Amino acid sequence: MKFSRFTIALAASAAFALPALAQSPAKPVTAIVGGNVVSVDGAAPIQNATVLIEGERIVQVGPSSSVMVPAGATVIPMQGKWLVPGLMNMHTHLGLKLPGAQGNALLNETDAEEALRMADNARKTLQAGVTTVRLTHEDHGIDFALDRSIKAGEAIGPRIQSAGELIVPTGGHGFLEADGPAEFSKAARTQIKRGATWIKIAISGGISDTHGSISAAPMTDEELSTLIDVAHRNGVKVTAHNGSTEAALQALKFGIDCFEHGYHLNDEVLKQMKAKGVWLVPTMVVSQSGAYEFYRKIGSPDWYMERVASTGKDHWAMIQKAIKMNINIALGTDQFPYEPNSGTTATVAEAELYVKAGMSPLQALQAATIQPAKMLGMDKDVGRIQTGQYADIIAVDGDPTKDIGTLRTIGFVMKGGTVYRDDADPARIAH
Questions:
Q1: pLDDT tier at 394 (50, 70, 90 boundaries)?
Q2: Which of 25-29, 138-142, 340-344 has the lowest mean pLDDT?
Q3: Which helix (H) or strand (E) holds 51?
Q4: CA 196, 200, 201, 202 torsion: positive or negative?
Q5: CA–CA dist 69, 279 (Å, integer)
Q6: Quick one: which of 8, 25, 49, 217 is 20 to 30 A from 300 by CA?
Q7: In a 3-state reduction of DSSP, which class is residue 340?
Q8: How many alpha carbons lie under 13 Å from residue 393 in its C-beta half-sphere?
Q9: Cα–Cα distance measured from residue 69 to residue 66, given in angstroms and rounded to the nearest whole number
Q10: Would you say residue 244 has pLDDT above 60?
């Protein structure tokens, strides 16, 4: 039998390729041993458990007596600790600028300077136990660049989904202005082209505005319906900065997916949200007393503090009703996730406010884990400590399904099988 030169060459290349494949390096194996694994679905915890991790993902979870730790695995002892899925924060601005002295100092910040500041805030966010964020406005595509840098291992930070730049009608609560259906359509498509997995619009004024009313509805039906239609045609969800009942009813008519803040939403809006499965990201910490320390630190002006105070009462009444009505709620802060608030971080303070407003500790933990995962469409990958999910794990001193305040004791943070914080043994931290 005769063989062509091509056939012989192909056989030779295959002979060299097979050993190369066989010699590909194995994924690192890590075993977290002795901790109690919290169930965010309400089941009993797995006590004295072993979580076996291969590479980025969990491959086995169970009682230590039934999970064999392979020879050569890295073992992380967690006796007495409670293992919880990494927290998720659905309203984050890593490049946040607010009215006041601190915001004024950033007025001439270049994109390069902002990118470095955002990278630093991303690292602090992850170290605070927040392993996934949704960015709800950043400047000039810096968020997409940061996401790529984190995925490439060049920067340290949480998993990111982003809405890109906030789209607003001229004079609205934001900077990417558009007028008329065509401009709103192009603005949405531009963000999607850059990598946006959400589109965010401002359909009312905001606390930080010196102009415009929080209770107004400045977008026309054509503008709003076109933007939502364009996003949905591209498989992208739409969320709206909103405190206005009138604007909320308008957006619900056209299929909005989520509201941010919801300061003044009334019973009719909440009923429609419940019926349509629309999400609420409340950001309670920004209008309640715990944020005043932050506002003083950044030098917020008197007019801003007055708007916070006048909004806070309605905001609190709204969240209590939303909880009673079992609205879909995902945790978000509108402060840096790690920012001090009420003696803890803004993320943990937000969860504590949900309990104070009527949630059980388990429901508040769900609002910080499986609910955001569901909202993002990431629930097959994150939100639980179970086989197949990314090894995004934090450790605390008690069971947060019984006392949400135990989240104040975060001392260990792992994302994708890599340790980014370990107060008991800092030598384990990835550098």
A1: very high
A2: 25-29
A3: strand 46-54
A4: negative
A5: 41
A6: 217
A7: strand
A8: 34
A9: 10
A10: yes
d(CA 149, CA 423): 26
Pairing of strands 258-261, 198-202: unpaired
- What pairing do the DSSP bridges indicate for beta strands 57-63 and 258-261? unpaired
Q: From CA 146, how far away is CA 129, in angstroms rounded?
A: 19
**Residue at 331: amino acid letter:** L
Residue matched to tokens 């989240």: 407
Q: How far apart are CA 236 and CA 30, in angstroms?
A: 36
Q: How is residue 246 written in tokens?
A: 């009138």
Q: From CA 59, how far away is CA 415, in angstroms rounded? A: 15
Q: How many CB atoms are located within 10 Å of the residue 190 CB? A: 15
DSSP H or E run through 240: strand 237-242
Q: What is the pTM of this model?
A: 0.92
Under 8 Å between Cβ of 108 and 348 = no
Q: What are phi and psi of 130, to 5 degrees?
A: -100, 110
Q: Which residue has the tokens 């450790």?
A: 395
d(CA 194, CA 147): 12
247 burial level (CB within 10 Å; 0-12, 13-18, 19+): buried
Q: Which segments within 67-162 are labelled E, that is strand?
A: 74-77, 82-85, 87-92, 130-135, 159-162
> Tokens at residue 127, please?
């170290």
Give the up-direction half-sphere exposure of residue 369: CA atoms within 13 A in the CB hemisphere.
Answer: 28
What is the pLDDT averaged over residues 34-50? 98
Q: What is the pLDDT of residue 304?
A: 77
Which residues in 355-365 are b (16+ Cβ under 10 Å) and which e? Answer: bebebebbbbb
